[in-house]
Amino acid sequence: MSNAILSSCSAFKLALVQISIGSDKSKNLERTREKIIEASRNGAQVVVLPECFNSPYGTNFFPEYAEPLKGGDSTKMLSAAAKEANVYLIGGSIPEREPSGKIFNTLTAYDPSGKMIAKHRKVHLFDIDIPQVITFKESDTLTEGDWLTHISTEYGKLGVGICYDMRFPEMATIAARKGCMAMIYPGAFNMTTGPLHWELLQRARAVDNQIYVAACAPARDNNANYVAWGHSTVVDPKGNVVATCEEKETIVYADIDPEQIKSTRQYIPLYHQRRFDIYGDVSDTVEENQDGQVSKK
Ligand SMILES: NC(=O)CCC(=O)C(=O)O
Name one GO biological process term (predicted). Predict the structure, then answer.
């Protein structure tokens, strides 16, 4: 992708809502709604929520908190809040129960009229085993998604992934080459992998692809079974951390400016120097449909 595709993009103010999540779903929803409105009052035009914002994070909680997307309390709240706040809303993720009974870790996104404009199911499930340190197996109760997702907004296209998806560079490379200005990851790293890789991965995805990268986490609850790292962060196309925070409840704001992407690509012209004659272009192996869903050709 060249810089030409970015000519239709424009700047916007992004907000990452790092909220405290408890066991009471209706309180989680109400608190989240208030924070979306607060972000909008502070000038945000695109608001992002964390992974699993309506429920504690854990394989035992997913079946208990799962909802259908159609008519579910969480999607109803998200749609109404996007409309009330007049923002694009990347609604973190929730455990989604589909009619077959399968449960997915699903992100939904809304335009400022409240219309649902995208649905992304976590593609790479968080299954890790570091003996005596951390073992987690999302696949015990979740099913993985089958497509990548690029969201069209009036500011330009935004790629999304959910947490562990951040570790797979192909997703961000495909998004960048298909014209996305940013990769946005609702996430919930933990006290082991958070300090190790949370910021590093975001900076890596940004530098490799010369795009913005943002990751939105829940606030830390030291009494939870799974203790989240927090540190919601925005990285610019040069790899600089332009906005971040610690572990407490807060909102992180950053300006996303396509001119920064253009100038980074002009000064370090990776986009024209790739050797696809040697190693091929991964973005050529997939196609994007009109709903922004990307799958193998
Ligand atoms: N919720 C997740 O996918 C956690 C991913 C994580 O912590 C990691 O290290 O990767």
Answer: glutamine metabolic process
pTM to 2 decimal places: 0.97
ipTM confidence score: 0.99
> How far does residue 10's CA lie from ligand 1's centre (Å)?
31
Largest CA distance in the chain: 55
Any atom of ligand 1 within 6 Å of the Cβ of 76 = no
**Both structure tokens of 125:** 């499930």
Low-confidence ranges of the chain (pLDDT < 50): none
Domain boundaries, the chain: 3-296
Enumerate the β-bridge partners of residue 186.
Answer: 216
pLDDT of residue 271: 86
* CATH class for the region spanning 3-296: alpha beta
Q: What is the pLDDT of residue 7?
A: 78
Ligand 1 atom with the smallest distance to the CA of 57 is 1
167 Cβ closer than 6 Å to some ligand 1 atom = yes
What's the pLDDT score for residue 3?
Answer: 65
**241 CA to middle of ligand 1, Å?**
20
Residue nearest to atom 1 of ligand 1 (CA): 188
26: region left, alpha or beta (phi > 0 left; psi from -120 to 50 alpha): alpha
